[in-house]
Write a structure and sequence with these properties.
Layout (H helix, E strand, L loop, with lengths): L1 H17 L3 H12 L4 H6 L9 H38 L18 H15 L3 E2 L5 E3 H4 L24 E3 L4 H10 L6 E10 L11 E11 L4 H16 L5 E8 L2 E10 L16 E10 L1 H6 L8 E7 L1 H9 L12 H4 L7
Helix pairs in contact: 1-4, 2-4, 5-10
Length: 345
C-alpha cells in the first residue's frame, strides 16, 4: 500500500508538470484527489491493516495528497500567469502609431437658420412655442378662419389620417392653441418653429415635408406699422443692414389685411439679375394683421385686441443666404454638402 501511494504520487507529479493548460490541470486534480480517485481506492484497503500500521498509512496518504495538491496549485499559478502574459502580448498597443482624428460634426444648415431666427426674436421679447405635428382639423383650419369646404384649403393639400386628424400643414395651429390657452387675455408674443407636411411633388423648390417658423403678436393697439418694423429688423439681421423690404397686398384667410414681403436682391443690389428674375426683389415671407374672426374664435375681444402674424420657410431663407439651388440637398444627407457649413462659421 505504501509503495502504491508512492507510485501514485510520482505519477501525479509528472502529469502535473506536463499539464499544458488549466483544463488539463483540473482533470488531473479530479482524477487523483477526487472521491473516486486511486488514492481514495488505496485508502479503502486500510481496514485490512493492523492497528499499528493504520496511523502511519493515514499520515503517508495525507502527505501524498498535500504534496500533489501543492504542486497543482503552484502549476495553476504558473499557467494563469502565462495566460495573462500571453494576453497582454496579444493586446499590445503600438503607441508610435498615429492617432485617429476625432471628427467634429456641424450644425445642419436648417438648424443654424432656425436657431439664428429664434435668437433674433427671443432678443426682441418673443418666446418659443411648440405644438403637435399630428393635429386636429379644428386647430389646423377651422380656428384659423378656414371652415370645412373653404376653397383656400385646396392651397394646402393635406395628409389626412382620419376625417378630423391630419399632419399639420403649417405651424399656425400653435398660434391658435396658444391664444386659446390665454383665455382671451394679452399680450401674446411668440414664434412657432417646426416641421409641416403637405402633399406636394418633390423638386428643386418643393418638398412634402419642410420647416416653417411663424410669429404672432396680440395686444392692444397693435398696428401694421409694428409688423413692418419687426420684419425690417428681421431682414436686416438675417441678410445684411443694406437690405430693403417692401410689402405687397396679398390674401390669407387668417389675416386681414394680408401682405407678402420682398427683400432687395443681395446679388444685384436691387438692379435686377437672374436670381431675382430682373425685378430687383425676392419674395421671402407672408404676413398680415390677425383676422378678427381668428381672435374671436380664440376668445379675444377683437374690438379691444389686435395683432399681427407672419410665416417664413427656413429652407427658402437658407437657400437665399447660402446660395443653395436645390431644396433636396437639405434632406439627402450628403456629407459633402453638410461639410460646407463649418462649425466656426
Amino acid at each position: 500500500m505504501q509503495e502504491r501511494l508512492k507510485e501514485l504520487q510520482a505519477e501525479a507529479l509528472e502529469k502535473v508538470a506536463q499539464a499544458a493548460d488549466l483544463k488539463e490541470l483540473n482533470d488531473i486534480r479530479v482524477s487523483y484527489l477526487g472521491k473516486k480517485g486511486p488514492i481514495t481506492e488505496v485508502l479503502k484497503g486500510m481496514g485490512k491493516l493492523s492497528a499499528e500500521e493504520r496511523p502511519k498509512m493515514g499520515a503517508l496518504a495525507n502527505e501524498v495528497r498535500d504534496l500533489i495538491s501543492g504542486q497543482i496549485e503552484a502549476k495553476q499559478n504558473e499557467l494563469e500567469k502565462a495566460a495573462v502574459e500571453a494576453k497582454l502580448a496579444a493586446e499590445t498597443i503600438d503607441v508610435t502609431l498615429p492617432g485617429r482624428p476625432v471628427r467634429e460634426g456641424n450644425h445642419h444648415a436648417l438648424t443654424r437658420i432656425v436657431e439664428e431666427i429664434e435668437d433674433l426674436f427671443i432678443g426682441m421679447g418673443y418666446t418659443v412655442a411648440e405644438g403637435p405635428e399630428v393635429e386636429k382639423d379644428y386647430y389646423n383650419f377651422e380656428a384659423l378662419n378656414l371652415p370645412k369646404g373653404h376653397p383656400a384649403r385646396d392651397m394646402q393639400d393635406s395628409f389626412y389620417i382620419t376625417e378630423e386628424i391630419l399632419l399639420r400643414t403649417h405651424t399656425s395651429p400653435v398660434q391658435a392653441r396658444t391664444m386659446e390657452a390665454r383665455n382671451g387675455k394679452g399680450p401674446v408674443k411668440i414664434i412657432c418653429p417646426g416641421k409641416v407636411y403637405r402633399r406636394d411633388n418633390d423638386d428643386a423648390t418643393h418638398s412634402h415635408q419642410f420647416t416653417q417658423i411663424e410669429g404672432l403678436v396680440v395686444d392692444e393697439n397693435i398696428r401694421l406699422s409694428d409688423l413692418k418694423g419687426t420684419l425690417d429688423v428681421f431682414a436686416k439681421k438675417m441678410f445684411g443692414e443694406d437690405r430693403e423690404i417692401r410689402l405687397r397686398p396679398s390674401f390669407f384667410p387668417f389675416t386681414e389685411p394680408s401682405v407678402e414681403m420682398d427683400i432687395s436682391c443681395k446679388m444685384c443690389g436691387g438692379k435686377g439679375c437672374s436670381t431675382c428674375k430682373g425685378t430687383g426683389w425676392i419674395e421671402i415671407l407672408g404676413a398680415g394683421m390677425v383676422h378678427p374672426n381668428v381672435l374671436e374664435m380664440a376668445g379675444y375681444d377683437s374690438k379691444k385686441y389686435t395683432g399681427f402674424a407672419f410665416g417664413m420657410g427656413p429652407e427658402r431663407i437658407a437657400m437665399l443666404k447660402y446660395g443653395v439651388d436645390d431644396i433636396r440637398h437639405f434632406y439627402t444627407n450628403d456629407i459633402r454638402f453638410l461639410k460646407q457649413f463649418s462649425v466656426t462659421e
